[in-house]
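Example record

One chain of 336 residues, shown exactly as stored in the release files.
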Amino acid sequence: MSAKQVLALLSSHIDGDEDQLLSIALQIAAQEARQGRPEDADKLKRLVQKARDQRRTGSAASGQTPIPLARPRGELQGLVESTYPKVSLSSMVLSDEIARRLGRIVRQQQERATLREHGQTPATHMLLVGPPGTGKTMTASALAGELRLPLFTVRLESLFSRFLGETAGKLRVLFDQIAKTRGVYLLDEFDAIGARRGDPNDVGEIRRVLNSVLAFMEEPNSTDSLVLAATNHVEILDEALARRFDEVIEYALPDAASARGIIERRLGKFKFVSKFWVQLAPSLEGLSQGELVRAADEVVKDAILEGESRVSPSALRDALENRKTLKGKFRRHSPR
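Predicted C-alpha cells for this chain:
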C-alpha cells in the first residue's frame, strides 16, 4: 500500500466519506491480487462487503435516523420543506414493473461506490408522471426512507409565482444545494416551469426559467442526490427537458386487484370477509390510490368510534361512491 493510498484512506475517514474509504480499500484489494497476494485481496473484499451490509441493515435495526439538517434558510426558506420519511417501497402497492425499476434505483444508490469503481454513476434524475393521487409523492418519501436520506420537497409553482423575474436565480440556489447536500429532492408540479418552449401562451420569463433548468440538469451531481420531478401533465413538458432524466416512470390508476390490496392493507384488522369484494368491484373503478386510502380511513374511523371490530362493506361502498361523486364535480368545474 502506497503513501498516497494511506493519505487517501485517512482523508476519507476524517471527512466521514465511507463510500470513498471503501472504494480505496477495493482498489488496494485489486492491487494485492495483481501482486500475487490473493488471500489478502479476498480478505479485504470480504471486509468491504461486510461494512456495506452492516451499513445497509444496521441503522434500520438500531432505529437510527439521519442527523437532522437545518431547515432551508435564506432564499430557499418557504420554498423547500425538509422531512425524514420512514416509508418503504414495500409499504406501497406498486405494479411489478414500477417496483422493479424503483428497486433498481435504490440498489444503484446503495452501491454507488461500486459503480464509480467501474466508471459508472447511479441514476439520479427521475421523472414521475401520472394522474393525481397515484403515488408519485409517496414514491419520493419511500425512496428517501429506503436510502435513509432527507426528503426536500420543492414547490416549483410557488417558486415561480412568488418570484416572477427572479426564478432562475432561485433555481440556481436550489441546484447549488443539490450539489452540496445529499438527499432526495422532489420538484412537485414540474409542469409549472417545464412547459414546451414556443407554446402560444409562453412568455419570455418562462422560456428563461426553462433554459436555466436545462442547463442546471446538465451539471455534475457530485452528491449523487436523487432529483425527482413530478407532474400530472406530461403532455405539455418540453421534449428537451424530458431527455435530461435517467428514468421516466408512469403511474396509472390501480386495477381491481391493486385497489383491493390498497384498501385491505389500509383496513388492517378491520377488514371484512372476502365474499363481499365481488359486490364492491364497480365502486373501485376510476379511483386513484389516494382516493382509495381516504375512503378506507373514513370507514375505519367510524368503526373505531362505534366500537365495531370490522368495517361494514356497505359503509365502504358508500365512502367509495362519495369519492367518485366528489371527483366528478371537480372534473366538471376544472378549466379545460
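Notes: The chain has 15 helices and six strands.
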